[in-house]
Every structure is written in structure tokens, then in C-alpha cells.
Amino acid sequence: MNFAVLQFPASNCDQDAVHILRNVLGHSARLVWHKEASLGDTDAVIIPGGFSYGDYLRTGAIARFSPIMQAVQNFAGQGGPVLGICNGFQILCEAGMLPGALIRNRSLQFRCEHVFLKTKSNDSPFTNQIPADKLLRIPIAHGEGCYFADETTLARLDASQQVLWHYVNAKGEPTEQSNPNGSLQNIAGICNESRNVAGLMPHPERAGEGLLGSADGRLIFESLIHYLESKAQPASGPRT
Amino acid sequence: MKAKIVVTPKKAVLDPQGKAVQNALEHMGYKGISAVHVGKYLEIELTGDKETARRQIDEACHKLLSNPVIEDYHFELE
Asked: In this structure, what are the phi and psi dihedrals at residue A52, rounded to the nearest 5 degrees?
């Protein structure tokens, strides 16, 4: 599969994303500079973490107006999968491609640690390979990861199973203590109504190998690859 | 002419910065502070007629300078 990993000024997890896709999972991944107007031949887009445009004004606020984001909107509009990680999640919310917003952590602290995630819905291109009872141990590193949306939006997210991941403790319970940033309802990641655009604050690309302390993040990328491969070769269709 | 823009967090949105400032003010001994909200202030210098400027600034506030999900804004031109 061909992945496009976007690169903004001050992206800093772009190489990690390319590494897991290319070296760990054996797929093709290339960096796409934010000033480009086209994604080229791409099966999926990753918007990586970092501090695009120095987080000026609001996180992700300026990056969403980069030329490449128009191409990403068109790609997503045609059903192409887009995954935003950390700053990528913030950019997708600012662009209106995901509902809600990410605001300053309730503690006002930049939090850099491993958290546990519980997958709320396996029905998405990003979660289909995650076993139902599996907790993902994945690092976070952010100062503005508190998910906020108004009550109507939260109810809609819940009703259409758009919440993909919750922050939980080691027992899988969504407690206040296991919530690192004050996100409403312990929300760590969501998808859009069409389920092809998702964002999460934790960094699955930093948890792709045992050497890094956890390989749980692989499951998210493997879900995406599984989704793309089954779409390219439908199970019911003839195989050659 | 100059546009003076104030962006503030919506009432329903958690404002941990405002809360931290409020706590600090209370520690300093200031009494009767019931709430603090931390927002942003922007000044934009621009030329042209006032009506066009008003429309442009309003649009810019809506699209970029504030995020309507979490913030309110108001501005004046002078």
C-alpha cells in the first residue's frame, strides 16, 4: 500500500510514521510537503504529530489552510482513509473534518507518558484488527489534548459509535485518574460519520516495536492496511 | 484603520488557564473574584472602506482567528 505522510513546518513525528509503515510493516510511505497541491498516488493519508506553525493562534489552526489540506479534503470526500495523530488530530478538528476541538490540558501540564486505551468500536478502518478486550498501551505527548465538543455533538458521536478510543486504567475502566488531559468522557480518539477520517491524541507510531516498550500501536496501522487490502481485493470477488 | 479583536473561550468550555489565574489572584489576597477567563487580543491594521473591512474581519474571525466550537469573538474598527 502507498501511504502519504504529510509534513508541515515543525511536524516532528513524520519520520516515526514513515518508519513504522515502511520498515516495520513493509509498505510504501512517502513524505508530502504541505505546500504541494496533490497527494499523488495514495491509498491512505497520515497527518503526523508535531507543532505545525509553532502552534501559533491555536494548535492546527494555520496548518489547515496549507495547500495540501485541500487535497486531503478531496481525498477524504471520496472515501479515502485519513488518520490524524496528535497535532494531526488537532488539524483535522480545526479543518472541520472531525467534530469538536482539542484544548489546553485541564492540568495545564504537558503530559508525556504511556496511557491505556480501550477501543470502543471495531467497526472502522482504524480499529478492525484490534481484539475486543485488548487494551492498547501507547504513549502520549501533548499540552493541548483535552477533547471538547458540545452536548449535542457528544450525543451524536455516541449514537453513531464515532468514539473509537477511550483513556482507561490498567483494568480497562475509564476513570478520572486515567484521563491524562481532562477530555470529556475520556475521549482519546474519534472518527467522522463516514468512518474514513479518524484522529487520536496518543502516538501509535511510537509504539510499533518491542524495543520501544510496546508494539500495541501496530494494531491501528495493521487495521488500516487490512482495510485497504480487503477493499482492493474484495473477499467475495474473484482472486487472481 | 485598525481592527481590535477580542477572542474569549465560550462559557461552556473548560478554561484551566482562567482557573489558574483566579487561584493565583486569590492567593495574592484579592477578594471577591468570581471568575477569570483568559482569551486573546489581536490588532489588525488595514486599509479600504469600513463596510468591506467589517465584513472581511468578521469572516477572518470566523474562519481563522477564532474557533467557533470553543471561542466567541467581538471586534471594533477605529
From this structure: -50, 135
Bridge partners (DSSP) of residue B40 are B7
Kindly state the average pLDDT of the residues A134-140: 98
Query: What is the pLDDT, as a whole number, of residue A129?
Result: 98
Q: Which residues of B touch A182 (CB under 8 A)?
A: 14, 16
The average pLDDT across A133-150 equals: 97
Residues of A in contact with B20 (CB under 8 A): 108
CB of B11 less than 8 A from some CB of A? no
Position A235 scores a pLDDT of 58
Q: Could you tell me the three cell numbers for A218?
A: 501496530
- Domain regions of chain B by residue span: 2-77
What are the pLDDT digits (tens) for A35-51?
999 999 999 999 999 99
The answer to whether B35 contacts chain A (CB < 8 Å) is: no
Q: pTM of this prediction?
A: 0.94
- Closest residue to A104, CB basis, from B16, B40, B64: B16
Partner residue opposite B12 with nearest CB, options A93, A146, A150: A150
Secondary-structure class of domain B2-77 per CATH: alpha beta
Domains, chain A, ordered by start:
2-232 (3.40.50.880)
Task: Find, in chain B, the residue whose alpha carbon is nearest to that of A144.
Answer: B16
Q: Are A188 and A138 in contact (CB under 8 A)?
A: no
- Among the partner-chain residues A94, A101, A104, the one whose CB lies closest to the CB of B17 is A104
Q: For residue A67, which phi and psi values (nearest 5 degrees)?
A: -50, -40
ipTM above 0.95, yes or no: no
Mean pLDDT of chain A: 95
| Residue of chain A minimizing CA distance to B11 | A150
Smallest CA-to-CA distance from A143 within A192, A105, A177, A106 is with: A105
